[in-house]
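Lab notebook, design round three. We kept the backbone fixed and only want residue identities now. Task for the bench partner: fill in a sequence for the structure below.
Input structure tokens:
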């Protein structure tokens, strides 16, 4: 197979986004938009992948700092797509073969489509091949002008098109294959005599056609895939398409999604077969969910590892936590980062946890805060228990041994340890360590005053 390199245009600010964040870093289904074309370029084996960066260059570059197949070049002033590609000339000096040109704002492009474009380009030994599509509403895109025999002549931008050209429904996706020698020999000669006074990459189509070189268009039958995101409304639309794909793939792999139109699962999330996700759940980040799990409605899960047969009940929020198998959480529980729940743990309603490990079979069923704690196995944490982990300056640890029973409404003033198999009576404030196998109780003894209410009158 011939050499393939990619040039990805990502220097523009994205003025129409009306946002302080550069366009290509806006997330679509949980990933910066630019990740999608970068991934597609990698999947088809492009090397190197050259990113043309400009606006917020450092932030864009930072994203790919660790990637040695990615080279960034700076386009200091955004003088147009043609000028942007010309910026990649030096990094690709000595490269011969096919240059795939992509845009940072087309997150829906599939690697398979890109592969098809490259194969088409090579099979016909073309100089330039443009990926195009038919659009019912082509507004804003460049139009593909062909002659009577269907030969591609040039591409005309919306702003430069005459009314007849504006009626053309075949649009330029902004995705191309070009012979490297042709590209870099000619890109310097493109002018900026047009409505936007920009150096248009699209002018190379007319250059190739004018020279009688093979200049082709591959018309994709999926217009959705090459949708360019220029504003936040289009970003929402693109995100919806991505989510639909993600959900479909999960469903085909055996996950029940009760209402895919109202389920928000980000790119990269894994869910095992025979799990069920109810409506209005948000599952994001590096989350992995096993099989046989049930995620009730209105649950938000980010960066969690959830083993098989867990049940996350309605309205719960789980962040950066690990659930081993057969754990039940919620309804309305909040697991904050650093929570590790061993098998068969039960966390009930209105329980908040942070940086805790809870051993197998332990329970905290109601209205509790557990932070910075190490809790053994088969421990019962009574309703209303609080680990007082913060003294206003520092956080302190609470250690609770195996088989401890903590009664209701207990405060554990950390640092403090409750030894294994002890019982802490309801209403106790634990301020000193409790040895194993003991009873800890701190209560003012109750006094009943007979007839007290009657005497008051
Ligand atoms: C471009 C095409 C248009 C096509 C459309 C598809 C040109 C002249 N027009 O128009 O035919 O239908 O894409 O979505 O190419 N960029 C730079 N440096 C620049 C200018 C742009 O890096 O100086 C980058 C942008 O960040 C963006 C991409 O190039 O990722 C496309 O630029 P944009 O301004 O969105 O072009 P369109 O007007 O959409
Ligand atoms: Ca665009």
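Proposed sequence:
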């Amino acid at each position: 197979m011939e050499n393939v390199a990619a040039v990805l245009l990502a220097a523009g600010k994205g003025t129409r986004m009306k946002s302080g964040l550069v366009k290509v870093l806006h997330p679509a289904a949980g990933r910066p938009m630019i990740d999608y074309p970068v991934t597609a370029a990698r999947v088809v084996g492009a090397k190197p992948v050259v990113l043309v960066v400009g606006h917020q260059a450092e932030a864009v570059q930072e994203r790919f700092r660790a990637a040695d197949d990615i080279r960034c070049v700076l386009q200091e002033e955004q003088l147009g797509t043609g000028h942007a590609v010309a910026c990649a000339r030096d990094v690709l000096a000595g490269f011969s073969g096919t240059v795939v040109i992509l845009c940072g704002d087309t997150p829906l492009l599939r690697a398979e489509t890109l592969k098809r474009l490259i194969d088409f380009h090579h099979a016909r030994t073309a100089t330039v091949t443009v990926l195009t599509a038919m659009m019912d509403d082509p507004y804003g895109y460049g139009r593909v002008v062909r002659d009577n025999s269907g030969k591609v002549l040039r591409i005309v931008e919306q702003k430069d098109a005459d009314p007849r050209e504006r009626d053309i429904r075949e649009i330029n996706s902004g995705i191309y294959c070009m012979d490297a020698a042709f590209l870099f020999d000619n890109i310097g000669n493109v002018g900026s005599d047009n409505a936007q006074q920009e150096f248009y990459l699209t002018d190379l189509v007319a250059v190739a056609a004018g020279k009688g070189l093979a200049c082709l268009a591959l018309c994709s039958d999926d217009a959705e895939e090459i949708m360019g995101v220029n504003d936040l409304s289009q970003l929402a639309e693109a995100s919806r398409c991505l989510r639909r794909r993600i959900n479909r793939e999960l469903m085909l792999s055996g996950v029940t999604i009760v209402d895919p139109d109202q389920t928000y699962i980000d790119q990269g999330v894994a869910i095992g077969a025979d799990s069920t996700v109810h409506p209005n759940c948000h599952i994001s980040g590096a989350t992995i969910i096993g099989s046989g799990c049930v995620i009730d409605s209105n649950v938000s899960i980010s960066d969690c590892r959830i083993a098989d047969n867990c049940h996350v009940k309605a309205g719960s929020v789980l962040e950066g936590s690990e659930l081993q198998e057969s754990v039940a959480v919620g309804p309305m529980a909040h697991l904050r980062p650093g929570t590790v729940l061993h098998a068969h743990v039960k966390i009930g309603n209105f329980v908040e946890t942070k940086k805790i490990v809870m051993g197998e079979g332990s329970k905290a069923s109601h209205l509790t805060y557990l932070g910075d704690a190490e809790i053994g196995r088969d421990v019962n944490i009574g309703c209303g228990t609080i680990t007082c982990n913060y003294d206003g300056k520092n956080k302190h640890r609470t250690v609770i041994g195996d088989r401890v029973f903590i009664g209701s409404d207990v405060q554990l003033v950390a640092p403090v340890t409750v030894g294994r198999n002890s019982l802490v009576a309801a209403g106790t404030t634990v301020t000193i360590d409790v040895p194993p196998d003991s009873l800890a109780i701190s209560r003012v003894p109750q006094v009943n005053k007979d007839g007290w209410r009657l005497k008051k009158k």
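Keep this in mind before ordering anything: The first strand starts at residue 4 and ends at 10.
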